[in-house]
Amino acid sequence: MNREQLLRTLKSYRTPFEEEKSFVEEFIALCEDPLAFSRERKEGHFTASAWIVNKRRTHALLTHHRKLNRWLQLGGHADGNDNLMEVAMTEAREESGLISLKLVDSFIFDIDKHLIPANSRDAEHFHYDVRFLIEAAMDEPLTISDESNDLAWVNYDIIPDVVKSNDSILRMLEKTSKSEFVL
Fold first, then answer.
1. 118: CATH
2. Which residues of the chain have pLDDT under 70?
3. Residue 126 lies in a domain
4. Alpha-carbon gap, residue 132 to 104, rounded angstroms
């Protein structure tokens, strides 16, 4: 999914979630920026994430992010790669050590715009996160990356307690918990 395909997909993207609907036009506009997939765009840039679930849709793989000190889905910066599906799969492999990753669908699963706090290297900025639904086997060994404090398969029932008020994760959880969203 290159820049042009991403733009076409975003233009036809439909969601029943109001917050997600509010991001679509900004994502479309960002596609036009030559630096959209680069950290050089200081005010914000595209990232890609993997919502990794088991085949039975009872658990999601979450990482305890070292810098943000929160449980999140796996993902990262595009670093110039405009194929966000490829970025999501690469980040999922690098951050989990999983080999059995299977892209459930080539369509965008979720989008989210969120603020990243300033740190020693970067000023406060936005991540325009494009997410893909990925399946993996829970019995495969996990490898914790340098970017994480921990990595765990979390039962759907306790994800709300683990992620607290992270609405975007709760939205992805809802999408994989309800039959109308399950592919």
1. 3.90.79.10
2. 179-183
3. yes
4. 8
How far CA 130 is from CA of 12, 84, 119, 124, 162, in Å, comes to 14, 7, 23, 19, 22
Q: Which of 175, 178, 169, 155 is nearest to 65 (CA)?
A: 169
Query: How many angstroms separate the CA atoms of 175 and 19, rounded?
Result: 14
> 106 vs 35, 40, 159, 167, 177, CA distance in Å?
24, 27, 25, 23, 19
In the beta sheet, which residues pair with residue 130?
Answer: 48, 111
pTM of the model: 0.94
What is the Cα–Cα distance from 24 to 15, expressed in whole angstroms? 10
pLDDT at 17: 96
Domain that holds residue 105: 3-177
Residue 7 φ then ψ, to 5°: -60, -45
